Amino acid sequence: MSKGKLAKFADMATYENVFQYPYRALEDVSFPIQGHWHEQYFHNQNPIVLELGCGKGEYTVGLAKMFPDVNFIGVDIKGARMWTGATQALQEGLKNVAFLRTNIEIIDRFFAPGEVSEIWLTFSDPQMKNPRKRLTSTWFLNRYRHFLSDGGFVHVKTDSNFLFTYTTLLVEKNRLPVLVKTTDLYATASKDSIAASIQTYYEGMWMSRGISIKYLKFCLPHDGELEEPDVEIELDDYRSYHRSKRSSKDTAK
Fold this sequence. Notes:
This protein is of the alpha/beta class. It is 27% helix and 19% strand. It has an 8-stranded mixed β-sheet with strand order 1-4-3-2-5-6-8-7, sandwiched between helices. The longest helix is centred in the middle third of the chain and has 13 residues, at 79-91. It is globular.
């Protein structure tokens, strides 16, 4: 029998690779190692990469195993899910992995300018009704600029045609440099593609239903005011995986 939420939270409270700072925890204090992740946690000067909305941490752990000379931090507010990746990282002795349980809306409170090299957004909620909550919105990109190195990479991997289209239009409108763009990652990726090297359980479910995986990699320079695309985008016509119905139609155009 798998552990319940209370048992997982009890474990997390003892894990040396987990930092738990939900919004209320930072109301009167600052994060103690902001700007000092290299010295006080990782004990090296290797690049730091974030996975925002990491869920069970499959990408955070998977990438850390692939790139031992890079530091990875998985960020999410769902501690019971994060427990899976945090536990695996401890059991496998991965020293280049950490997990931060917090609200992504305040992510800029945890890192100093230039402290992060890359950001991964893996299967983020497309937030079709609330543009500001989209993790690729100008509201979030401006926060990423506070700590992401100038011109640092942002990776977007998604099943959502809506989120992919929205992000593509935003990137084009703001002339952000694009390195990779595909509406069907596994049909076009080379064998050594990092984005195609890790596949989650739910990612496999979406693909089995005929939903293609989209991927976009772009640079985020610090200069210039970011603008939202003023275009109506077709909504995804399927429901999220945990609900009762889901179309097998591929929404990619």
